[in-house]
Design brief:
globular, 29% strand, five-stranded mixed β-barrel, Spore Coat Polysaccharide Biosynthesis Protein SpsA, Chain A, alpha/beta, four-stranded mixed β-sheet, single chain
């Protein structure tokens, strides 16, 4: 049976100052009046019932997750004491799911994506899970690029393997790092590359088998946790072992070296909501390309994101900026430099101003 794993452990630093430690990005209502986590849950729920949905999140946001998703069984919220990147996250979830269902196939989904065509998304997940159940291997969804984007990693498509109705499945030839602009333009012109969506399908057992082969330290740690899972010592063992797990992504730590990897190219409207300028894609911009949220006055502005979170913001004669104001902090940054907000957060942390984080 298909299970869904929602990865909700990110800190969301690129969305500071609205995203904070006690309420990171995935819990914010940036679009549609619902949190990104809630949107992700509701997107997959018609295909997977709550009793087969799992959320991996930080220990500090576990109770917030349970309040946000009261339909979930309480023990399906898996709390990481520290973040160790997506290989540990995916392995931790696979370990828990496997105890419930030895035959489980898992759709693994980030909590902070916006996908406008939810029905088509579910059809893609259904096709991918059927393919993995039949053929084995690890599968990722690649989004057909619509622009020469430098903020995403890419997938290079391999040979076509078969027809899945409205989808085709290909062997995955290569993961490609985030390119510079000229390289991104070449990828778009050649047509053999996809944006790496970070969404996966695999059987829980096969993922753990690959982790044993490729990341033995991670496998050993997960085995120690599994040995105490469901006992009175489980939480203590997670707290002891998890910080020792290697920090590596599942893309590079597992999928790059896996014996059998697939990709399904998809073309539904998708955003990973990676930084403030992404709101320009999700909110209705005005005729001058300004995307605003909250109490905002924008006079003679152009191509600017302005957010007033509990604070009125007035801007005049500015362009290509991100301006975000909360009652306790204000951010102003060129839109082209918005990925560097994480550096701003690091600088605030260095100064010991934790009340702003």
């Amino acid at each position: 049976m298909l299970h869904a794993v929602i990865m909700a452990g990110g800190s969301g630093t690129r969305f500071w100052p609205v995203s904070r430690r006690d309420r990171p990005k995935q819990f914010l209502s940036l679009v549609d009046g619902r949190s990104l986590l809630r949107i992700t849950f509701e997107r997959i729920q018609p295909l997977v019932p709550p009793e087969r949905i799992w959320v991996v999140t930080a220990g500090s946001t576990a109770e917030l997750t349970r309040r946000e998703l009261p339909e979930l069984p309480a023990d399906h919220v898996l709390a990481e004491p520290v973040g160790r990147d997506t290989a540990a996250c995916a392995g931790f979830a696979a370990m828990a799911v496997l105890r419930d269902d030895p035959e489980a196939v898992c759709a693994v989904l980030p909590a902070d994506h916006v996908i406008r065509d939810a029905s088509r998304f579910r059809r893609a997940v259904e096709a991918g899970s059927s393919h993995v159940a039949r053929e084995g291997g690890l599968l990722t969804f690649g989004v057909r690029p619509t622009r020469p984007e430098t903020g995403f990693g890419y997938l290079r498509i391999g040979a076509e393997h078969g027809d899945l109705g409205e989808w085709t499945v290909h062997r995955l030839a290569e993961f490609v790092e985030k390119p510079d602009l000229d390289t991104a333009r070449r990828y778009l012109a050649e047509g053999g590359y996809l944006w790496n969506s970070g969404m996966f399908v695999w059987s829980a057992a096969e993922l753990l088998a690959e982790i044993r082969l490729q990341l033995p330290r991670l496998a050993e740690g997960l085995q120690r946790i599994a040995g105490e899972w469901g006992t009175a010592r489980a939480a203590a063992v997670v707290d002891e072992v998890y910080p020792t797990l290697p920090r590596i992504s599942v893309d590079y730590g597992v999928m790059e070296g896996a014996q059998l990897c697939w990709t399904i190219p998809v073309a539904f409207p998708w955003s990973d909501v990676g930084a403030w300028p992404a709101l320009g894609e999700l909110l209705d911009a005005d005729a001058e390309g300004n995307a605003t949220r909250g109490r905002v006055v924008a006079l003679d502005c152009r191509d600017t994101v302005i957010v007033g979170d509990g604070t009125l913001v007035a801007a005049s004669g500015v362009h290509d900026l991100v301006v975000v104001a909360t009652p306790t902090a204000v951010l102003v940054v060129p839109a082209a430099e918005a990925q560097r907000v994480k550096d701003v957060v690091a600088a605030i942390e260095d100064r010991g101003w934790d009340d702003a984080l």
